[in-house]
């Protein structure tokens, strides 16, 4: 028995080991058929004795969660294996993984504060325009109300998007634009088209946490490059290209999530030169484009949609309930992407595209965004000030957007703060869910539009005092 | 030089070889990084000389479509390689592959007849109910109009679906139901959850052609089992289980697509016993459920959602423009499926679920479906009669649904008929797009709701006369 076992009692540890395995299966870290770690290796990882791991594996076999293949080891059973799920809901005990913030933010009710979530409160969204769009949609001709979308999707919307992309310097014809069910589905479709299981993909560190979850679903190898206030660290980027020969780089260059940093022209130019030399493809997730006061450089604009593909959506600016995103891709990709889109979603957005088009086609959208940008700027200043008072300091002063990437006072564990805050109905976004390297545990992302409730600034200081590392 | 080359001229053949490779890349038969056949093997396949293949490969390298790795062979370049695409539209020259019918049916305009498509004409859909639902949606509270859906999706709709599934003998609690963007996306999500690249999946022969395309996107090995008027051929099914040890079986058991056959209780029972012995998981695609007059047995009902998962959607009965489907799954799967859904689509249907719920919650849906079933029954009889007059005979007399699976007169090549019909603006569904074994080229699927135009019965006989095999 290890010291731990003497302290905690082996039953507790045994349950801990079993829970860890169940969670890895539920979180798809271990997929059906995957081999479990050897008894010895897992005993070391968990810092328990081998006999504890043996017992845990045997009980999980009895439960049908894993299978034992004599001589070969232990394997995750087909997902028929009951993962003993109670009710879906925010689970206080869930470990902080890439999906942690998504789950908490999507699951929790309206009483909950969500400074950690990635979208605006309903009261900030263009409610009137949406209601108007729904009323006018009720007068569409029957085919628009009942038919599948065309393979590329709603042509007038694609024409409008082509013009809007042009305003950001991205030259795309409407036939280079494919409508998708969402921005996430756009990236998912591109991953299917561009990478195979085992391919290496570069992400920023920190980056949008769902990139980690999505790439895991594609069984990709992920490497990350530190992000600076003007873009990725180019020296490190070049090293990664040389060492790992990645096929793909996924980034937000408009307003970077979570840092709200913007790409500088020189970094954009050099990054593209590196990508060209290495034959690297780039997915530029530009869903925050319309939050900018003055557009920063876009990789897709510099590159002319040759090796850079751009994606966008309307979830952050119009509605996350009306599902519609898009891909602006090199001409040569369209045929293959459309086949893949039909195979995996068949229709694509149809009514949703009609609704988005109705909201974008007149001047009301520009007015809405102007008001939104001003409101966010005010909120950004206020939130930065209030966070400063409790010792939480912004990494940079963002030019625009909704996110403040902040450093916590020294020695505070962001994950622990997030866990404890959830018990008080506050959903936070701790740094390491954004960091592949796991180096951002002293950071936290705040969505300023979700930080207006005074309760946040009462509860946070108290919780932080309980979370000093090595306390 | 081969005889062919002397006849056709090597330039023509060279272009043919290059076109074949481009098409395999566009169709994802060859995915990025995939190794091309050896010069010798491909020369045999194409029945051309090795020098022609060498020349073709070299030109494609020059174009950047493929790459040469000295000593290792030729490989598909990253999809940056231009596939020289003109404009997306129905292409008369496209080979009849699993996506052929989808592409033609989704792409073509209203002037085109679509007996080959898989959905009802707009005039058959509940237009008034959709307009009413849109108007009432315009009065929803802001969060319903702007927020992402919850991880499982719209609870009242899930409760309603649980009751409706119960009416078909499928016992599922609302917490075992996950809303998805569509029926196709539901199956896609399940494939991601249940299979890994290289896993073997069983499908019916014939089966819904998009299963082939979807499984190709998942890099699965497909084996097929002949379908009989009462379900899959159990003897063959048992052989396949023994020989190929598949992980998954995907089928429509309610009304089978394309045959409109229904599962008999004894076949359902025996099939499940075989599945249990082999540890096989089954995805039961039940999107045609509401077209039945009297419900046939459901695998999910017999099984009690242990190894059978059921999916459904409203694209065929309410609207294909309002994207919403669902999964009814074993409890133990929900947690993992939800994580995967968030990773790959984030939100899931939100407004779409509100609209579907508005249309399902009152009695109007049942009235609509009653009328639809009667109209389809009449149309089924008329179409069968008119097809009979031109020598096209139904395989079975379906109890319900929209599909007639028909045998063409002896010696007629269905793919050729479909190709020629497209030139006359008629989209047909030739048998082999449904057949993994490629044994259905004498068959064709007719959607009776799309066969009311007399032009079809004038044009078809003329075309069939041109398409006698070996003419």
UniProtKB/TrEMBL annotation, chains A, B:
GO terms for molecular function: transaminase activity. InterPro entries: Aminotransferase_I/II_large (IPR004839), HTH_trans_reg/aminotransferase (IPR051446), PyrdxlP-dep_Trfase (IPR015424), PyrdxlP-dep_Trfase_major (IPR015421), PyrdxlP-dep_Trfase_small (IPR015422), Tscrpt_reg_HTH_GntR (IPR000524), WH-like_DNA-bd_sf (IPR036388), WH_DNA-bd_sf (IPR036390). Residues 11-79 form the HTH gntR-type domain. The keyword Transcription regulation applies. Keywords: Aminotransferase, DNA-binding, Plasmid, Pyridoxal phosphate, Transcription, Transcription regulation, Transferase. The keyword DNA-binding applies. Pfam families: Aminotran_1_2, GntR. In the C-terminal section; belongs to the class-I pyridoxal-phosphate-dependent aminotransferase family. This is PLP-dependent aminotransferase family protein. It comes from Ensifer adhaerens (Sinorhizobium morelense).
């Amino acid at each position: 028995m290890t010291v731990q076992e003497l302290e905690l009692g082996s039953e507790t540890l045994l349950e801990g080991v079993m829970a860890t395995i169940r969670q890895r299966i539920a979180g798809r870290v271990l997929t059906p058929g995957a081999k479990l770690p050897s008894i010895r290796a897992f005993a070391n990882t968990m810092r328990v004795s081998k006999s504890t791991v043996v017992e845990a594996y045997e009980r999980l076999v009895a439960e049908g969660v894993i299978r034992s293949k004599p001589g070969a080891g232990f394997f995750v059973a087909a997902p028929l294996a009951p993962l003993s799920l109670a009710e879906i809901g925010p689970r206080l005990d869930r470990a902080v993984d890439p999906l942690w913030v998504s789950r908490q933010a999507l699951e929790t009710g309206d009483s909950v504060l969500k400074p950690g979530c990635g979208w605006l409160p309903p009261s900030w969204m263009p409610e009137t325009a949406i209601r108007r769009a729904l009323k006018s949609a009720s007068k569409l001709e029957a085919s628009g109300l009942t038919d599948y979308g065309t393979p590329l999707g709603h042509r007038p919307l694609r024409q409008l998007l082509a013009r809007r992309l042009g305003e950001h310097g991205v030259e795309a014809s409407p036939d280079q634009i494919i409508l998708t069910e969402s921005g996430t589905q756009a990236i998912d479709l591109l991953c299917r088209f561009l990478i195979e299981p085992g391919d290496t993909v570069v992400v920023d560190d920190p980056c949008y946490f769902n990139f980690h979850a999505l790439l895991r679903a594609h069984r990709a190898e992920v490497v990350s490059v530190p992000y600076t206030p003007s873009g990725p660290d180019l020296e490190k980027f070049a090293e990664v290209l040389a060492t790992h020969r990645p096929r793909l780089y996924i980034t937000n260059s408009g307003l970077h999530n979570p840092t709200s940093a913007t790409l500088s022209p020189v970094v954009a130019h050099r990054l593209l030169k590196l990508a060209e030399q290495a034959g690297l493809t780039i997915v530029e997730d530009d869903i925050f484009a319309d939050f900018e006061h003055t557009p920063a450089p876009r990789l897709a604009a510099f590159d002319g949609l040759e090796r850079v593909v751009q994606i966008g959506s309307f979830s952050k600016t119009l509605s996350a309930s009306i599902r519609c995103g898009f891909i602006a891709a090199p001409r040569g990709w369209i045929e293959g992407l459309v086949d893949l889109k039909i195979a995996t979603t068949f229709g694509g957005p149809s009514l949703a595209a009609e609704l988005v088009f109705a909201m974008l086609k007149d001047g009301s959208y520009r007015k809405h965004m102007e008001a939104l940008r001003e409101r966010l700027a005010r909120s950004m200043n206020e939130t930065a000030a209030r966070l400063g008072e409790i010792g939480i300091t912004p990494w940079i002063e963002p030019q625009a957007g909704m996110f403040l990437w902040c450093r916590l006072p020294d020695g505070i564990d962001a994950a622990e703060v997030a866990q404890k805050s959830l018990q008080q109905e506050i959903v936070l976004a701790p740094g390491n869910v954004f960091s592949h390297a796991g180096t951002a545990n002293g950071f936290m992302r705040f969505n300023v539009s979700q930080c207006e409730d005074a309760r946040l600034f009462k509860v946070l200081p108290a919780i932080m005092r309980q979370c000093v590392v090595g306390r």
